[in-house]
Write a structure and sequence with these properties.
This protein is α+β, with helices and mostly antiparallel strands. The protein has one domain: Arc Repressor Mutant, subunit A (Orthogonal Bundle), CATH 1.10.10. The chain is built from 4 helices and 3 strands. α2 packs across α3. The two termini are about 15 Å apart.
Length: about 70
């Protein structure tokens, strides 16, 4: 979960492929991890259907930068 948060903070987006490649996960497991992150961090990211990726909510990102 921390890696997802850091990736969002640094790059501003994430998708399943990032998790699959980084951690050698299956696509369903990557989806489950992203869903778990969203439940634990409501409002942190939104799914952009055109780009097919999760995009960070800028207010969440600023909050994370202040805490770092």
């Amino acid at each position: 979960m921390e890696w997802i948060a850091e990736t969002l903070r640094v790059f501003g987006f994430i998708n399943r492929v990032h998790l699959v490649r980084k951690f050698c996960l299956s696509v369903p497991q990557a989806s489950a991890d992203l869903n778990r992150f969203m439940k634990r961090n409501p409002g942190a990211m939104l799914y952009d259907k055109t780009q097919k990726m999760y995009v960070v909510d800028e207010s969440w990102r600023r909050t994370r930068e202040l805490c770092s």
